Amino acid sequence: MRITMIKFITKRILIAIPTLLIIVAFSFSMMRVAPGGPFTNERALPPEIERNIKAAYNLDKPVYEQFYIYIKNLTKGDFGPSFKYKDFSVKELILNGLPVSVTLGLSSIIISLFIGSFLGIIAAINRNTVFDYSVMGVSLVGICVPSFVMAPLLSLFFSLYLGILPTSGWNNGNILNLILPITALSLPQIAVISRMMRASTIEVLNSNFIRTAKSKGLNQSYIIRKHVIRASILPIIEYLAPASAGLMTGSIIIEQIFGLPGIGRYFVVGALQRDYTLVSGVLILYASLLIFLILITDIIRAILDPRVKI
Amino acid sequence: MQLTQKNIKNNNLLLNIHNLNVFFKTPEGISHVVKDANFNLKKGTCLGVVGESGSGKTQTFFSITGLLANNGYVEGEAFFKDTNLITCDDETRRGFLGKSIGFIFQDPMTSLTPHLNIGDQLAEIAIYHKKINKNKALKKAIEVMDIVKLPSNRDIINSYPHELSGGMKQRIMIAISLMCEPDLIIADEPTTALDVTTQAEILNIFNDLKNNFNIGLVLISHNIGVIAETSNEVLVMKDGQILESGETAKVLTKPKNEYTKHLLSCIPPWIGN
User: In the sheet that B29-42 helps form, which strands lie side by side, from edge to edge?
Assistant: First the structure.
């Protein structure tokens, strides 16, 4: 088991390298296909200065040579200098923003996993009761209302009307500042996860092996704990990787709304201002995070379900 | 025939069903799937229940063990020893289930929990009902695996359901029902999903249980051959009604009811000679 696991992980990491390379090449060329460049301003620069700047950033060289230099630097862990945030390298910017984004993303995913699956199980057990209908109704709202609508509403209500939580800012990760952004990020995920969990729990509850468990005279809470949850949580585990991708893109908006210094902000600003290296750097980070998360969910799946061969 | 609790005290009587009716609420109205069933079962004997699918034979036994679907309800009396299984509370009924009443289901392929290993599934029932520790329960598990003629080694204990064949899974199901040494085993089409040789082996195990362990056995089947081989008494059911009952040999050789005759005429003539 342990040896196959190590083999599996190494294989997946080896596959990840060409995948990342393709993603880098794609983002690299996409950025350059887009019209304009990092130094295009409303007022044109004098040609000599523009030439000098371009030479400083290797932009005067042919594209394939730029790509070669970029990849060569990447292998050394150098993501290049940011074109727009002078005096900062991309690596510095990412390392500055990462703790914020990771705190936000990780807490959202854990909170939505726990609350979502808990609500789903309770709704499934009490199917067609008031509790079930209210959870499903509220979750429908959670799915339909996008986070960029939910976030301002939350901050309007809790910060301006009630005045109990700050509207925005990071404040060194103070828990009070985190509550609203994490809530806004988690709500849609809680909604989706609770619905999925309800559906899969109902399916498991109707399966033959639960009938067997009932015929053993076991009580309901024991059956739920030992026989139901591990089977019904499998679809949720599979959903975690796409959910994290959703959280990443969601956090770009949420970070803007709540004025948090996370990575999402650099991604948006970088893309708008043609900050080639910054966008590529953030993209590589997002892609590797996603690949890593898919690997983790596969491992969890193999642990939960003995039928999954890895 | 008026039955009171007194004549049920008769030590040999295990199961006494009186005027049992089972209904299902459906969008089209109430459907009456078991109509006024009356029968009883003694220790160490086997009651065969035969009938076509949809005749209510499975629902009769689901209803007395509380395994009916959510839209089903039951009326009548079903005494297991001294307790009326219909009117007692869930707690009491659950106390019998698994401990004194074992249930074996039709489809062994899907009736075991896929993510728990065989040892856990065997042991949990003894741990739950007898409050013994896991080591003792596993020891007991190996004992019952011997009764159902499984190689009683650690390999099977540690394997998962998907690693076993259908016949092995059905033996595990029987082993589970034996873990707490029950007085009654209800086997619902236990051989239907299995090939003929495995069928014969499973039926031999049932005969052993009945004769050596003094267990009362209910064998539900649509296969008259299976019933003939194992049961002492037989019920013939159709559309929720018990059409004929009596000693197996009598019913099968001299059927009184037209439907029973019809059922028997469905057996190809070259079998059973």
Answer: B29-42, B13-26, B72-80, B83-84
Tell me which chain A residues have a C-beta less than 8 angstroms from the C-beta of B178. Answer: none
| pLDDT tens digits, A128-149 | 899 999 999 999 988 898 888 9
Q: In which order are the strands placed within the sheet that holds B216-221?
A: B101-104, B184-188, B216-221, B46-51, B233-238, B241-247
Indicate the burial class of B43 (C-beta count within 10 angstroms; 0-12, 13-18, 19 or more): middle
Q: What angle do CA B5, B10, B13 make, to 5 degrees?
A: 95
Cβ(A128)–Cβ(A208) under 8 Å? no
Residue ranges per domain, chain B?
A: 106-179
Distance in Å, alpha carbon of B269 to nearest chain A alpha carbon: 36
Q: Best of A127, A205, A209 to disrupt the B interface by mutation (most B CBs within 10 Å)?
A: A209
In the Cβ-directed half-sphere of A290, how many Cα atoms lie within 13 Å?
A: 18
Distances (CA, A) of A124 to A118, B94, B183, B230: 10, 22, 35, 41
The ipTM, to two decimals, is: 0.87
Q: What is the DSSP letter of A157?
A: I
Of B67, B95, B115, the CB nearest to A306: B115
CB crowding A198-220: b at 16 or more within 10 Å, else e: bebbbebbebbbbbbbbbbbbee
Q: Write the pLDDT tens digit of every residue in B103-117.
A: 999 888 899 999 999
> Which residues lie below 8 Å from residue A233, measured CB to CB, with a gap of 6+?
A117, A197, A200, A304
- Check residue B7 and give its pLDDT: 47
Q: What is the pLDDT of residues A49-94, one digit of tens each?
A: 888 887 877 778 888 888 888 888 888 888 888 887 878 888 888 8
Site from A128, A204, A206, A215 to mutate, B interface, most B CB atoms within 10 angstroms: A215
b/e code A99-128 from CB counts within 10 Å (16+ = b): ebbebbbeebbebbbebbbebbbbbbbeee
What percent of the residues of chain B are helix, what percent strand, and what percent coil, each to the nearest 5? 40, 25, 35
| Contact between residue B145 and residue B199 where contact means Cβ atoms under 8 Å apart | no
CB count in 10 Å sphere of residue B9: 10
Q: A100-261 is classed in which CATH architecture?
A: Orthogonal Bundle (1.10)
